[in-house]
Automatic annotation (TrEMBL), chains A, B:
Its EC number is 5.4.99.12. This is tRNA pseudouridine synthase A. The keyword Isomerase applies. Homodimer.
Length: 264, 264
């Protein structure tokens, strides 16, 4: 039988998960996926590798994983089979057969995350699981100025959890944007970058909300970055509004980056 | 102190409620509202009257309630006070001082309900609490024809739970519509009527989905109504997609009805 590698896109509601990565005595996304795969692989344990380890409470619409099956099964059949076995807060969005050396994490060239803020005076009960409620008036121009300062290649030490185990804290944010729905008071922040440190977006967001409602100035961002000190940035915002939207691989265009060369 | 009657609009996520109405040993919306009011009324029990008793799992964006306080408090203060005391799946949307004889249920001249269907092949995990997942292809023209048959004044015995305690089962549906978001595969059904029997919209919806995917014909609706027999209609659909959107009172325009006379 032919060993086959699959690249699979997964969406999940992070509310009832202790994060993506397997840990003892906790309900995790990886754990649920591996449980579903045992059935498909007829009792064999299949190890799953994810592009990113989302924290407890963080959502995903486009987490990418890879794994090997000891046999070939058509991607369409695997898509249906997995969706039959996963719980209702996990949905398999797409299944592709991948090259034998495809790796969901090592080959990712970038990721897109969104962060949703409900800026209504009183929290919308239907958004409470998928958006962070911030009741204070927010000023869009201030936020946009701060986002511009965040774009580019920087040492993001000030915006990384002190528990981050990465030595090199230089990352590039290709695009940091916000769109506002005036009718529903929902603010949707989008971050595209080549990689994000532990808690980085949640700390960027904590800092952005302080800029938004006037507790901090947009032009303070460069000196916060410069300080390379976690204490200089804002609070780590709740995971509730955070969602891993997309993982980019070779050949896929990323917002905010130049198109790859192509010859007509 | 002046006894004051208030008209209050409430939104709630019905997921974790055993319905609107108070019952022993169950978490209910009315129960949570009365608990919040005890604090505001300094220990006095305040009875709350709702426009409609939504079932377990049914949501609301515009439930209307009334109650009397033994004193006057400014509506804005009451709005903030209530929102401070209610749990996060209940939000007070609006507070008005009402006439002493205002009654949320008896004076309601109509209601608008919506029902959401997620027609994706695999359920969207972010919609699972607020939409019913139906994976079979649905045909919009068939649905629209069936909805037309439902509009008007009919004896809706076929579409009422056999547990309905109402003698008179004649109701008027002023408007029954559907809108479809092709991108997200979400179907939003809207029903405006002068009143709805127990489970009526959920049975209408169960029947509509059978029409939508071809198990029944749109032109069967008149004979189902004619039969006055619960057995002739479709299944009672899950409460998950149902939401009480609005309650209409004297002086408010209702979609599908003629404007009230007014003289220039």
């Amino acid at each position: 039988m032919k060993k086959t590698r699959y690249k699979v896109t997964v969406a999940y509601d992070g509310t009832h998960f202790s994060g993506y990565q397997v840990q003892p005595n906790a309900r995790t996304v990886q754990g649920e996926l591996e449980k579903a795969l045992i059935k498909i692989a007829k009792g064999e344990n299949i190890r799953v590798h994810g592009a990113g380890r989302t924290d407890a409470g963080v959502h995903a619409r486009g987490q990418v994983i890879h794994f090997d099956l000891p046999f070939y099964i058509h991607p369409k059949g695997l898509l249906t089979g997995l969706n039959t076995s996963t719980p209702e807060d996990v949905t398999i969005v797409d299944v592709e057969e991948a090259e034998a050396d495809f790796h969901a994490r090592y080959l990712a060239k970038g990721k897109m995350y969104t962060y949703r803020v409900d800026n209504s005076r009183f929290a919308d009960p239907f958004k409470r699981l998928y958006a962070y409620h911030h009741r204070y008036p927010m000023e869009r121009k201030r936020v946009e100025k701060a986002l511009k300062h965040m774009e580019g290649t920087h040492d993001f030490t000030s915006f990384a959890s002190t528990h981050s185990d990465k030595e090199d804290k230089v990352r590039t944010i290709y695009q940091a944007r916000v769109s506002v729905d005036e009718e529903t008071n929902e603010w949707l922040f989008t971050f595209v970058g080549n990689g994000f440190l532990y808690n980085m977006i949640r700390i960027l967001m904590g800092t952005l909300l302080e800029v938004a409602d006037g507790r901090r100035e947009a032009d303070d961002i460069p000196s916060i970055i410069e300080a390379k000190d976690r204490e200089s940035a804002g609070l780590t915002l709740s995971p509730v509004g955070l969602c891993m939207e997309k993982v980019y691989y070779e050949g896929q265009e990323m917002p905010g980056t130049l198109k790859e060369d192509h010859h007509d």
